Batch of 4 targets.
Target 1
Amino acid sequence: MSQETTKNKKTKDVFDEIDDLELPVESKGKKKEEKISAKVKINLTELKAGLQKIKNEATQLLNLIEEVDVGEELVELDVSQEKLPLVSPEVKIGKAGEKIIEGVFDGQNMVGPDGKIYSVPANYASKSKLIEGDILKLTIHNDGSFIFKQIGPVERERVIGCLIFNEAKSQYYVVLGDQKWKVLTASVTYFKGKVGDEAVILVPKDCQSRWAAVENIIKKFE
């Protein structure tokens, strides 16, 4: 065998040995992530109802913020929100096709389980001496008329304070010390109350509230 042939054979053996080695090889490019596609079915009716609820709650919060005086501490006063779990979440249909909805009185209106606001006539709220947290039943008849009924009154306590009027907000208040409650104008008018009179009001017993019901007025001057 010639010298050149022997040299070529050794060279080939070396390359064969290299091919047999398991050497770690670093990939120059990153492995592409696998894309997972998933189809999600969306119930548009439920989505719309959920967004409407969020909108109503946001509106309530904005109204609450606007009602707070500058420098006044914002405390947990929304009794109606705490009482909502106690009402039926369903809209019932009566024998004549009327809608029956339960809700919670917030001092002015009834808040439904879906967050919708139903206006309560001031004369009815005043006459019935409704306070925050009272559970109401609303019957909406086929002719569009609204009939409210109190079905779950919260425990009350009496407070005697001084009647004042905020001209900027056109709102009557009853004040006792550092506490202040809004009262319906219809109630003050019914009892012919005037600024400076003493007002006997009803408020929730176990929690704070923004609103109170006027039970009577003690005239300052006869």
Note: The two ends are 141 Å apart (CA to CA).
Target 2
Amino acid sequence: MNNGSDQAGSQTDPRAIRTKTQILAAARQLILDEGPDAVTPTRLSQITGIARSTIYRQWTQPADIIFEATAADTDAPPFTPSGDLERDLTAYLEALRTMLGTHQATLTATQIERAEHSPEAAELLSRVAADRRALIARLLGEDEHDFSEEHALIIGPLMFQRLLARQPISDKLIQLIVDAYVRTRPTDSS
């Protein structure tokens, strides 16, 4: 993980932001081209021209670089919520399908693999999953602290279809998920 030194200043210094962005982009490309084992400070330094000491100052372990390079932004949904449950859930699943149809599927698989072998990566992946669960819970007007099974029902079939079955995600699958969620969702009067 980040070692914390110079954190406050590096988050606002445009040069530090540019450097970090450049390193993470190079790490993502290495993962896609050669796999996660290719991501080392030495390789990143060769590709970017950024000193290894700068890379080590930001990340103490290659696994930390890999995880940060593969983590997706979870602050906002990838569409504008309409307030309509079925429409918003469909839009969320379509955005997830689009993401899983890109290089992000490889990066997600890398996150999962790293979490199996690193307690730190597992903790970070759990936080990413919690952030995503909170995002979709807020979007659907659910209690984010009591939404784990529903979240699994919503995203699990897409993850299975793309990452394990290696098949495209169809409109029919998305509609089945939306229908199942809407049908099993407790009503306000319950």
Note: The radius of gyration is 19 Å.
Target 3
Amino acid sequence: MLRAMRDAGCYYLDFGVESINPSVLRRMKKQITPEQVQSILKLSYDLGFKTKVFFTVGHIEETVSQATETLRFIRKNKRYISRIGGGVGINIFPGTEVERYAMEEGLMPEGFHWSKPYHNEENLHFSTAPSVPILVQPQLTWRELHLMRRRHLFQKLRDPEVIKANLQKLRGPAALRRIKSLAGGVLGSGKIKSTDSKRSG
């Protein structure tokens, strides 16, 4: 199929991989394997396609070590990826599996209700609207999410196209806020402490 697409004039492909850990993929009901992902990325590269591959961190029950697997996969297979998409932090939207899980596990922000105003400046560090909650879990706290974001950002900033795209966004009234967010992500320091154990009841 990829050869037929190339011969028809297609030259750019988007892939929504999200995670490379088998357990996280099963939890998301994505019927793909790490081996399939690596194979299709290599084949796409060999056929001359440009690719943008989306990876995200912060999924339901995901641990630091599982998220690290995804970042390691990106680094190992970077030659087959033209651009890296996605990021760190999973938004909680009404009616979703993420919302159901957050409510069952008591992970919704204190006093939160969809009918009431909500604002969290912390979200801006993750390039997401401050009016929508982010899933924060015992094994992936704000601290770990920030550190994983830093590592993810370093990998994205190795891509000249990503640098160019971010520079083009540094215009207008939102420029200062974006510069502050990028600087915070790159200049932050600290090591990730593995907290893979699930919250005990």
Note: Residues 142-156 form the longest helix (15 residues).
Target 4
Amino acid sequence: MILNRIATALRGRDWTAVAIEFAVVVLGIFVALQAEDWNQERTNLQLEQVYISRLADETRANLSSLKEHEQVFEEKIQFILSLPDLHLDEVIQRDPDAFMYQLDNSAYVALPDLRSETYEELESTGRLALLRGAQLRGAIASNLNDYRSLRPVVSQSIGGYRRLLFETLPGQSYYDFRFGTGYADSATIAASVEAFRSDPRFDAAANAEITYGTDVLYWVRLFIRRTEGVLALLETDE
């Protein structure tokens, strides 16, 4: 219809009509393109909120895991510090489960693997730009990448504490602890732990383990603060 009117105006050399019809065509194209941009922008905003919600959930889970490990390493250090002066018979008889848990935990060396499924999806699909905040994108990337680089290094102990403990503790007692099949008498456990802490290698091994645990605790607390910062940015946009 519009093309027919333009053709008629051209044949009649009605330049005013031509200009008006041409303006209508241009305006129609502009409005159509603008509407498409608005729809795309609305879709992007909706997608951004979905991803931010997922990132926030994963970050809360990461924060919870880091705080659990903070407690684990704090208890680990305090137990090793107290071990040389513990009255073993009294402590073991009072609660053998609790004592074996603390003893086992004192050799713990692992760190959690932070969740990053949503960030990896955004990265692999080229959708990181959906997160409009440059500060948010940078904070998430640096937190995850720095942690990934540090984790393999910090997850390895620097001394022989774990090996010495497992060499000294009767395998049957450890099996009973792990699978809840009941313990040998408390005297057996007490004697093995006494042999462990009386071993000439114990002081050096315990010192190395305390130093290692302190180093891990430092990094865990650092990443707790950084993860809390990321979560604060996400909750602002959530």
Note: The mean pLDDT is 84.
